[in-house]
Write a structure and sequence with these properties.
The structure is a homodimer. Chain A is of the alpha/beta class. Chain A has helices at about 20-40, 50-55, 60-70, 80-90, 105-115, 150-155, 170-180, 210-230; strands spanning about 45, 75, 80, 100-105, 125-130, 140, 145, 160-165, 185-190, 200-205. In chain A, helix 1 (about 20-40) crosses helix 4 (about 80-90). The structure holds a DNA duplex (22 and 22 nucleotides).
DNA sequence: CCCTGTGAAATCCTTCACAGCC
DNA sequence: GGCTGTGAAGGATTTCACAGGG
């Protein structure tokens, strides 16, 4: 969903900048989560086959993916869970907490702010913004909801933060514009509209109705198939 | 994210079963939404260029995608908004409402149940289930929360329904197993774990931490690039 | 043996560019 | 002239299969 599909290197890095494919980057978080779970259970070494199973990918794909990061496994043995974890965290820039600003504190914004999976996975909610005066001042998971007008201040106070757009479709573009103008260059949006942003801004979009519609297609294809067989 | 990548034809359909690529199917909902918006504004005809802009894809991609459904455009003119809409709705099986069962009525389940984008886009929430006795009986958006034990009954009462897994990671596999055993063959999960399901079950996974981590990678790549330039 | 790392093949997806129709 | 529909080219991603180290 995020804009492009080009290989993403580190521009300006001299010499052999291994270019990690976008498809690989999208899977590294899956491996990371599986590794954390394994570490929690005390597992020290894991084979590509096992880790792939935990991550719901094929082992060949996993090995290819990891090969883009370098050779961190041992033949005949597998990968060190802690080593591999820290290599992936380094590669993805999860070594320190990233600030997250959530705009829109409706049901979804609440759910996000309260989602325990953020803190402890490299993220910290530093701002909750809403336009509704009735919600301002309300504490949600240790953070107090502030008025939308504070948007620029909050973003300025947290360089390199990620903006989350959890407002209705009608105001999503407007909010996106303000975030970008304030300096945000990574957006996660839940609004069911295409956001127009400058090229250098990364957007990822999560659309629940889209996910359900894709599932609907398969339900329907099954039905049509069954009818054809019966007919 | 959903299992495979194979072309999805209608098995058992005689003769030339056009196989629509998975990537195309994932984009049809975007076009559909744009078409609905255009229709609401009273637009009757749209070119691939315009519709592509509204959907944030390229016009060539859009035309290719639509060509898999057949030739519903007119050269020199464009596409009829209403015609194209109904063709896509047919193709995706959105001609009648699909029942949706949501398991887990925490913050996220609430957000989903209350999400206006479902009813009116081909879906109807027919069941809300939770294990917490304090939540049972509570009405959420016209549907009353029922105990988890009712799962099999609810699924049986709504053939071909989609199951939504909005429970904590620890119980996700268990819930998924029950849904599948009860007959559900399409799952949307928000739990940050890989669900093991039989081949014939379609799973789509939405993982907020994963989305943020992908954005984090880009933030970090930007930083590294800036440093390299500065150094 | 077991298991990783990786070229090479195969597949899938996107983009190009233009023939053909309005 | 404008615009769709589509082969063909070009990329990207996945899979294969095996060389090579432990």
């Amino acid at each position: 969903m995020a804009s492009s599909r080009r290989r993403i290197g580190v521009p300006g890095l001299r010499g052999s900048s291994r270019a990690v494919p976008a498809a690989t980057i999208a899977r590294l978080p899956l491996y990371l989560r599986a590794l954390v779970a394994l570490q929690d259970v005390g597992v020290q070494t894991v084979s590509s086959e096992q880790l792939a199973a935990e991550s719901a990918v094929t082992s060949a794909k996993l090995r290819k993916d990891l090969s883009y990061l370098g050779s961190y496994g041992r033949r005949g043995v597998g990968y060190s869970v802690v080593e591999l974890r820290s290599h992936i965290e380094d590669e993805m820039g999860l070594t320190r907490d990233l600030p997250v600003v959530i705009v829109g504190v409706g049901n979804l914004g609440h759910a996000l702010a309260g989602y325990g999976g953020l803190s402890g996975r490299g993220f910290r909610v530093v701002g909750l913004l809403d336009i509704d005066p009735r919600r301002i001042g309300e504490p949600v998971a240790d953070v107090v909801v502030r008025p939308l007008d504070d948007l620029e201040d909050v973003v300025a106070a947290h360089a390199g933060c990620i903006g989350v757009v959890a407002v209705p479709a009608a105001s999503a573009q407007q909010v996106s514009d303000r975030l970008v103008r304030a300096g945000v260059r990574s957006l996660l949006t839940f609004a069911p509209v295409a956001l127009a942003v400058p090229d250098e801004v990364q957007v990822r979009k999560v659309d629940l109705a889209v996910e359900l519609q894709i599932l609907a297609y398969h339900e329907q294809a099954r039905l049509a198939g069954a009818e054809a067989v019966a007919g």
